[in-house]
Design goal:
There is one protein chain. This protein is an alpha/beta fold and about 290 residues long. It contains eleven helices and seven strands. It has two domains: about 230 residues, Rossmann fold (3-Layer(aba) Sandwich); about 35 residues, no CATH class. A seven-stranded mixed β-sheet has the order 3-2-1-4-5-7-6, with helices on both faces. Helix 8 runs antiparallel to helix 9. The protein is globular and about 60 Å long. The N and C termini lie close together (about 5 Å).
Length: about 290
């Protein structure tokens, strides 16, 4: 390899990087890969999900600053770099009918204009690989869907000097592979669920699997399985650093670590775009790149 390997992970909110692909990022950092997390919004409209911190007036009054500090802690744990795109959280609308999104929020931005900020980041960082969400956002949060949209535009636009002129957005750079995070997939969930039942343990996944049946969720194509079990503890520490967003005694952490590592020692991705030859399935996001720099 004649060039430094670089991975960019594009996420909607602080904490998304620690629940989606965090062990993968920590693994690559340990191998000397430069990893940059790009966070589209500040998570300003996110709820306090940790019951131990709910109702704290200081946190509620300063949620933006609190979440920035949590992101700083998670970044240090994972060993990654991180930057903010500077958009405002759209919130998760609830009700029937759904209320309109807040004026000026991320999900209401012009896609091409919003993608321009990400183009600047891509051209500056020069990643060979970019990860983000699929067209459904992983789940239908408007900011996750918007993150998908701008990443698709920016992946192509970073290499197009006509769409995004170099005098405004920097010298062109074309990433070579684009992946969707698919860590919350049915095969993994079913495998861990059954392993817990086989051990006579309670599973937190029963309700999830019933919902999968209820909504007839389309199964995604898993193309890439990154072995990263040695970094599951790092992943969990980074997620717990987002203290307002995760209950350390909740379902996320109910599967014993030894079962996770034995039953499902990988994180999964769906290859969306590849400008280099590769053979599926893969075990490496840089497959086809390491030997063709």
């Amino acid at each position: 390899m004649t060039d430094q390997l670089r991975l960019m992970a594009v996420h909607a909110h602080p904490d998304d990087e620690s629940s989606k692909g965090a062990a993968t990022m920590a693994k690559y950092v340990s191998e000397g890969v430069d990893v940059l997390v790009v966070t589209c919004t500040g998570g300003e409209r996110g709820s306090v999900l940790n019951p131990k911190l709910q109702g704290d007036p200081e946190i509620e009054a300063n949620i933006h600053e609190v979440r920035r500090k949590e992101m700083d802690a998670a970044r240090e744990i994972l060993g990654v770099s991180q930057e903010w795109l500077g958009f405002v959280d759209s919130g998760l609308p609830e009700g029937d009918p759904l209320p309109p999104l807040p004026e000026g929020c991320f999900a209401l931005q012009d896609v091409d204009e919003a993608a321009g900020r990400l183009v600047r980041s891509i051209r500056s960082f020069r990643p060979q690989v970019v990860t983000t969400y699929d067209e459904n956002g992983g789940y239908p949060h408007p900011d996750h869907i918007m993150t998908h949209k701008i990443t698709m535009v920016a992946f192509d636009g970073a290499g197009d000097p006509e769409a995004f002129p170099e005098d405004e957005f920097g010298p062109v750079w074309q990433p070579l592979k684009l992946y969707y995070n698919q860590g919350f997939n049915r095969p993994r969930t079913e495998a861990l669920h059954q392993a817990l039942l086989d051990q006579g343990l309670e599973s937190p996944y029963g309700e999830w699997l019933e919902r999968w049946k209820e909504f007839e969720r389309k199964e995604r194509t898993l193309t890439t399985f990154v072995p990263c079990a040695d970094f599951f503890e790092t992943r969990d520490r980074a997620l717990i650093a987002h203290a307002t967003q995760i209950d350390p005694d909740g379902g996320w952490f109910r599967v014993p670590m030894e079962i996770q590592k034995k039953v499902w020692p990988t994180e999964e991705y769906e290859l969306s775009k590849a400008l280099v030859p590769t053979s599926l399935p893969e075990e490496d996001l840089f497959a086809g790149i390491r030997d063709n720099a």
